[in-house]
TrEMBL record:
Name of the molecule in the record: Peptidase S54 rhomboid domain-containing protein
UniProt GO MF annotations: serine-type endopeptidase activity
PANTHER family reported in the protein's UniProt record: RHOMBOID-RELATED PROTEIN, UBIQUITIN-ASSOCIATED DOMAIN-CONTAINING PROTEIN 2
SMART domains assigned: DUF1751
Organism, scientific name: Dissoconium aciculare CBS 342.82
Subcellular location: Membrane
Bilayer-crossing regions: 53-75, 87-108, 128-144
A Gene Ontology term for the protein's cellular component: membrane
Keywords attached to this entry: Membrane, Transmembrane, Transmembrane helix
């Protein structure tokens, strides 16, 4: 049975609520001007280096808030696959990596190449969203493919654009990446690259780091319950296999080999979804 809502996804619920609440509070207290980064004057003239840690905390307009909340809700499946502890660890690592990498690329690369014209980095957790989107792209398979074409002939299969069932999942994030060019595209690109680097274990030591258990105690206890149920089921399967061998040695061995083979395939798929 498919889980609905934020079942088994407490960190995703916190993300969605946080995106809405922080933007609302920034509007209510009139502090949106402290959210984004302008290299000049914020960093060079005013010395407001603390903006490096705050520019990902909230969005500054309602359209971005809506698109981000809907996308984070859709990406809650990653937390269900990984577990809350690994999910929270990934978010913290992505936050700190993108907090420094994005302004650094803006200052050291884009600004000199544009002769100072590219000076603005919009606020919002766009890097977090695209880092999660990279995991979604890697681990969630598509269900079907379809072709979008302007041709009226059903026999012409070579024209048009071939899409998958996941194509619509990228429309809202694409809107965020294009909302405040070029800064929004830079933030999206950095987040995607950090997500790919995490998955390919390029970030040495960071992949195996986890937040303390007490930070995600509820999710950890839930995971332990599932592990207990899994161990019980494996024990029952082993007991049933032993009973089948005693009842019929030849057919029991053949059935056991088939079941072990199927378990290997299922186990491999399970490890893939866990990101192992």
């Amino acid at each position: 049975m498919l889980a609905s809502g934020f079942t088994h996804a407490p960190i995703s619920r916190l993300l969605v609520v946080g995106v809405v609440v922080t933007s609302f509070l920034a509007s209510l207290t009139d502090t949106k001007v402290f959210a984004w980064i302008e290299v000049r004057p914020h960093l060079w003239e005013y010395g407001q280096y603390w903006r490096v840690f705050t520019w990902q905390l909230c969005y500054t307009n309602s359209t971005e808030v809506l698109f981000a909340a809907m996308t984070f809700y859709q990406l809650r499946v990653i937390e269900r696959l990984w577990g809350s502890r690994k999910f929270a660890s990934f978010l913290l690592l992505t936050f700190f990596y993108s907090a420094f990498l994005t302004p650094f690329i803006l200052i050291a690369v884009l600004r000199p190449l544009s002769f100072g014209r590219i000076n603005y980095l919009p606020a919002g957790p766009t890097p977090l969203l695209f880092a999660l989107l990279a995991q979604y792209h890697a681990v969630v398979p598509y269900i079907y493919k379809y072709r979008v074409s302007g041709s009226t002939s059903s026999s012409d299969q070579s024209t048009g654009i071939l899409l998958t069932s996941k194509a619509t999942s990228y429309l809202l994030p694409l809107q965020l990446a294009l909302s405040q060019l070029p800064g929004s595209a830079l933030a999206a690109a950095v987040g995607w690259c950090v997500g790919i680097a995490y998955r390919r274990e390029i970030l040495q030591g960071a992949v195996r780091w986890r937040v303390p258990t007490w930070l995600v105690a509820a999710g950890y206890e839930q995971k332990e319950r599932y592990n207990h149920l899994r161990r019980r089921m494996e024990g029952e399967v082993a007991a049933g296999r032993a009973t089948g061998v005693e009842r019929d040695g030849g057919s029991g061995n053949a059935g056991g080999e088939d079941q072990a083979r199927r378990r290997g395939v299922v186990g491999g798929l399970f490890d893939q979804f866990r990101g192992a």
